[in-house]
Amino acid sequence: MSVVLTTRQAEELHKSLVAYLNSINASRSVETIREELPIGDNFDEVACKKYEGLLEKKWTSVARLQRKIMDLESKVASLQEELDSSSISGRSRANQDPTSWLPTTARHTLSSHRDGITAIAFHPVFSSLASGSEDCTIKIWDWELGELEKTLKGHLRGVSGLDFGGQKGHTLLASCSSDLTVKLWDPSNQYANIRTLAGHDHSVCAVRFLPSNGNLLVSASRDGSIRIWDASTGYCVKTIRSHENWIRDVYPSFDGKWLVSGGRDQIATVWDLSSSTPEAKATLLGHENFLECCIFAPPASYGYLATLAGLKKPPPATSSAEFIATGARDKTIKLWDSRGNLIKTLVGHNNWVRGLVFHPGGKYLFSVADDKTIRCWDLAQEGKLVKTIDGAHGHFVSCIRWAPAPATEPPPENGDANTAPAKKAPPKIRCIIATGSADSSVRVFT
Q: Is the keyword Cytoplasm in the record (predicted)?
């Protein structure tokens, strides 16, 4: 048998044994050990007192270290499994179809706000993400690195809406708040507050840029009105008054010709902005509680939604307001056509539905709610719930956004005459979403 302990270590162990047995009054065992082991007569009661408790301390230390080793081994195995999975995923990434991508676990959790998150927005070009909170601040993050870049202060009450937009080459950030104002911030000038738009009589709940005209943005308020503003002058150019109650959300079509709004009256309204006096094109009536969110479906979803609606042929992709999705406090999501006909009711959330976003590929609709989940609905399977991310946050999930497609470089102006013209690249999809929560954090899923 190989010797594990040195002579001195063995001597210390023997003395510790005698001290332990002596402390528990095992006198016969002490006598036996003294006879069989070379402890020596000079190991009297005074010396024995010095060794009392040493054996127990060593034993508990070993047990504690053993547990720590087991925990570390388990963590290493888990990380190795994740690494192997990532390697396989990386090798097959070229063959993956981004139109079928669904989120799994968060890549980053961004924490700095002191109160719940109410709104988020992606910069259209850079890897910047803005978050607004009940703590009255806006924070700018680098979502690729998961780092805080800047904190914007200016609103006097909680921030309730955010959106990036503006003229080409001069992106602005718009924010709205319970302080009755809309503010414009300039990312190219250290996010300086360049303009404050005042005119609403109550809390401003949502703000969006109109895609067709970078100078225009739209806001919705608890005062029951929708206002369209000229961002370059700060003047309100149109006011829509129809909802008799709190408007919770407003969303423009991709060409800026239509708006959909909804709120406390449990109705979503589609507005035609092409005329000088905006008119209600359709009224979507069917929810049994306040609307929290509304959104137009992208043309990529028309094929799936047309099948759900019983249409033989999907509408043309140039048509911008064919289908709408709404979410409400009745825990349901409803899909509608442009005439106000209900196509489908999606049931699955256990609490208020707070945010909706369509997958750019058109096949899926994502939703978040106060039940702390992200849910993925497959429009190709009649709106079937195909994935639920439980515990996406530690509290109510209040908002969700999809990162815009990366900007593509224009072809060179003067190409080689012998070079064949480049084919038009298919639209790219950036598989990144962000969610905000009442737990004061933003999570980025990639």
A: yes
pLDDT at 410: 42
Predicted confidence at residue 168, as pLDDT, reads 80
The residue among 198, 193, 203 whose CA lies nearest residue 161 is: 203
For residue 79, count other CB atoms closer than 10 A to its CB: 10
Long-range contacts, 385-389 (Cβ 8 Å, 24+): 385/346, 385/348, 386/102, 387/102, 388/348, 389/103, 389/104
Regions in the chain scoring below 70 on pLDDT: 1-3, 41, 78, 81-82, 84-96, 242-244, 407-427
CATH superfamily of 106-405+430-445: YVTN repeat-like/Quinoprotein amine dehydrogenase (2.130.10.10)
Dihedral (Cα; 271, 272, 275, 280), 10-degree rounding: -50
Integer angstrom CA distances of residue 165 from 25, 121, 212: 82, 10, 11
Q: What is the mean pLDDT of the chain?
A: 87
Q: What one-letter code names the amino acid at 393?
A: H
Contacts of 75 (CB under 8 A, 6+ apart): none
All CATH 1.20.960.30 domain ranges in the chain, comma separated: 7-84
CB 379 within 8 Å of CB 364: yes
**Which pLDDT belongs to residue 407?**
60
Provide the percentage of residues in the chain whose pLDDT is more than 90.
64
Strand partners, 228: 218, 238
Task: Report pLDDT for 241.
Answer: 83
Residue 141 contacts residue 131 (beta carbons within 8 Å): yes
> What is the reported pLDDT for 82?
62
Q: Distance between CA 76 and CA 53 in Å, rounded?
A: 34
First to last CA, the chain: 57
Q: Where in the chain is the domain with CATH 2.130.10.10?
A: 106-405+430-445
The CATH number that domain 7-84 falls under is 1.20.960.30
pLDDT digits (tens, 9 = 90+) for 251-310: 999 999 999 999 999 999 999 998 888 888 999 999 999 999 999 999 999 999 999 999
Residue 60: other Cβ atoms inside 10 A: 10
